[in-house]
């Protein structure tokens, strides 16, 4: 992993279907500075990397 990237893994509560997981994954991927967004529906986890010197993860909002 590049030193300018920080890996995050969040537990998602309430993901009811694969379509919801896909919406979250696509939404997170659109946030500036986010790379490699991945939602695992079975484990209900979101993994992503934030690039750049300043993390803007507070900008991540879920619309499901």
Could you please describe the fold and organization of this structure?
By secondary structure, the protein is an alpha+beta fold. The chain has 1 helix and 3 strands; from the N terminus they run βαββ. Strands 1-3-2 form a 3-stranded antiparallel beta sheet. β2 (34-40) and β3 form a beta hairpin. The mean pLDDT is 81.
Tally of helical runs: 1
**How can the largest sheet be summarized?**
3 strands, antiparallel
Please tell me how large the radius of gyration is.
12 Å
Beta percentage is 25-35%
Order of helices and strands: EHEE
Number of DSSP strand runs: 3
SS-based structural class? alpha+beta
Shape: elongated
Task: Specify the helix fraction band.
Answer: 10-25%
Low-pLDDT segments, ≥5 res: none
Mean pLDDT: 81
Explain briefly what this protein structure is.
With 64 residues, the chain is an alpha+beta fold. The chain is built from one helix and three strands, in the order E-H-E-E.
How are the SSEs ordered, and which strands pair?
Blueprint: E1 5-11, H1 18-29, E2 34-40, E3 45-51
Antiparallel strand pairs: 1-3, 2-3
Distinctive features:
three-stranded antiparallel beta sheet, alpha+beta, 33% strand, elongated, 64 residues
């Amino acid at each position: 992993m590049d030193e300018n990237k920080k890996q995050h893994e969040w537990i998602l509560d309430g993901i009811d279907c694969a379509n919801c997981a896909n919406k979250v994954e696509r939404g997170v991927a659109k946030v500036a500075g986010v790379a490699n967004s991945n939602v695992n529906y079975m484990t209900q986890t979101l993994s992503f990397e934030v690039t750049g010197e300043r993390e803007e993860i507070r900008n991540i909002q879920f619309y499901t």
